[in-house]
Amino acid sequence: MTTNNPNVSLIVPCHNEAENLSALYERVRNVMESTGKTWEMVCINDGSKDDTLDRLLALHDLDPRVVVIDLSRNFGKEAALTAGLDHALGDCAIPLDADLQDPPELIPELLAKWKEGYDVVNAVRLTRKGETWLKRATSYAFYRFINRMSEVPIPADTGDFRLLSRPVLDALKMLPERRRFMKGLFAWVGFRTIDVHYHREPRLSGKTTWNYWKLWNFAIEGITSFSRVPLQLAAHLGLAVSILAFLYAAYLIIGTLVYGNPVKGYPSMMVTLLFLGGVQLIALGVIGEYLGRIYEETKGRPVYLIRGSTTKSLHDDKHGFE
Ligand code: UDP
Ligand code: MG
Question: Is 74 exposed, middle or buried (0-12, 13-18, 19+ CB in 10 A)?
Fold first, then answer.
């Protein structure tokens, strides 16, 4: 590590966060000043439609520790976060939401655990203010569900807010997958991990871009990234149904032999038909989901594209802002 590199890189994915940025910067600066560490705040503008980029560049002019990376379009939070982690120069990195839902005031606690020798310090939510009970309930269910199926335990009630040491950052860079379920990847790399707890605040300003459709897809993404259980379930279900069908066939054949065939049985035929059709469609859907992932991965497209940035290494090529 060269001496110019900061101790701590804060990674902030920003999508339409113009209203929150100055408050975020102030709070981060105050907290970081108190820690006595050198730091940078890597802000990734993820295709914002408001003046997030201009506000970020203004902050950069004010304080060059604010590094701005502008993606070429909206790639989604996971990709924006990946871009930030790839460009972090610090000895550790802390992803932070731009809406101040992750209180910067917790950072010293994260750093203290890092100093004790932990590589990953998870910030675990004790409460979530400003979220509906439905969102809390579905989130709770999701974590319980995915952990029953996933090969690596994914810490419950932990967002992306956590501390990652340099070895973890380097490990993350080695993961080649395109579709990135970051919470899972963070857990997958392992290393010495510990939790600290906090109370999650409501969003400072603006609106969340998450809705239940996105959350549902996010859940599917997480499950199919980290578990083959649905595929196995499809196979087991198929086997179970086949056995039932076989028994039923035996029953029908013997019944016909013993009692003759009165040509009834329309309801049983329909039930069997519909049941089998349903099971087949579900199994196909599950296979399709995994096939889709293979398709995405084989395309091998980059996770994100950068339009410009304020960082030195990038501004040498002519895509920089300066
Ligand atoms: N975000 C992003 N790209 C997106 C959507 C969101 O970079 O396409 C950022 C957003 O600016 C914020 C963080 O991801 O910093 C969390 O988003 P949000 O607050 O909307 O989600 P929630 O906290 O409701 O889960
Ligand atoms: Mg938020």
Answer: middle
CA dist 183 and 81 (Å) reads 11
Give yes or no for residue 15 CB within 6 A of ligand 1.
Answer: yes
- Quick check: CB of 76 below 6 Å from ligand 1? yes
Could you report the average pLDDT of every consecutive run of 10 residues in the chain (322 residues)? 76 93 92 91 94 92 92 92 92 92 90 93 81 80 82 80 93 82 84 86 74 82 80 78 80 80 72 78 80 80 87 53 59
Task: List, in sequence order, the alpha helices (H) in 229-305.
Answer: 229-259, 266-299
Check pocket membership of 74 for ligand 1, CB cut-off 6 A. yes
pTM over 0.70: yes
- DSSP of 40-96: EEEEEE-S-SSTHHHHHHHHHHH-TTEEEEEESS---HHHHHHHHHHH--SSEEEE-
Nearest of 77, 17, 26 to residue 52 by alpha carbon: 17
